[in-house]
Amino acid sequence: MEQDSDWNQRIAKRVGHEVARARQHLTDDRGRRMSAQTLADRCAALGHPLDRSVIAKLEKGIRQTVSVADLLVLAEALELPPLALVFPVGYEDETEVLPGRLEHPVTGLRWASGEGVLPAREGDRSAAARWRETAIFWIRKLLKDEETIRYNRQRAKDHWIRVATADSPEAREAYERMARAADEQVADQAEIVERWRTELQAERGLHAETPPLHGEVPGNLLNSPGGPRSNY
């Protein structure tokens, strides 16, 4: 198949468009919209300098390519997840996820983040099966289970608070039953997760020790009720 020579340029143009869009929503210390120079300074501070003129060319769609290094640093400088610069979720109904292939931006996002696969095309029905054998699939499942434990732990904590503030012995007794049941559920789930974590490390050779959660993403893409409760 002949390579689509414009594919790199179209990706760069899309990223540039999203960079420009993101700058409109960020302000400097004086309350002014973030300038290209400020963005360039942020990129330099992160260890990957991008000249203001380079950013301007990217936003205007003149630059032919954008590297993964550029993408990661620009995203951090703009306080965005990197894939937000590739898939215009919430802004468009479809986007080009592969040369000539249009899909919903959320479909592309799920695929790129390892949450799902692209819709099967004729002649290839095994992508989902292959995806379920990847390390990212198993670690994502582990993360989702950990989120569920956090949610249930918070639920148990809420029940114990209600025990302490109940206005009658009957209500206190009911809340205590729910709290103890929630505590037992968390303990059982945690034991299962730790056993499974050990199996992933021993049988699949995966690094299954997950880092602490650094802030919750509201309505995260895992569609899990887990994590600290948010205001969103």
Radius of gyration from the CA trace? 23 Å
Q: Characterize the overall form.
A: extended
Largest sheet report? 2 strands, antiparallel
Low-confidence stretches: 218-232
The level of helicity is: 40-55%
- In the sheet with the most strands, the strands line up as 1-2
Report the order of strands and helices: HHHHEEHHHH
Tell me the fraction of residues in β-strands, as a range. under 5%
pLDDT averaged residue by residue: 87
* Secondary-structure-derived class: mainly alpha
Distance between the termini: 46 Å
Secondary structure tally, helices: 8
Record field, number of beta strands? 2
How would you describe the overall organization of this protein?
Strand 1 and strand 2 (101-103) form a beta hairpin. The chain contains eight helices and two strands. Helix 1 crosses helix 3. The longest helix has 35 residues, at 169-203. The model is unreliable at 218-232 (pLDDT under 50). It has helices spanning 7-23, 36-45, 52-60, 68-77, 105-113, 127-131, 135-165, 169-203, and strands at 95-98, 101-103. It has a two-stranded antiparallel ribbon. Helix content is 54%, strand content 3%. The protein is mainly alpha-helical and 232 residues long. The chain starts with 6 loop residues before the first helix and ends in a 29-residue tail after the last helix.
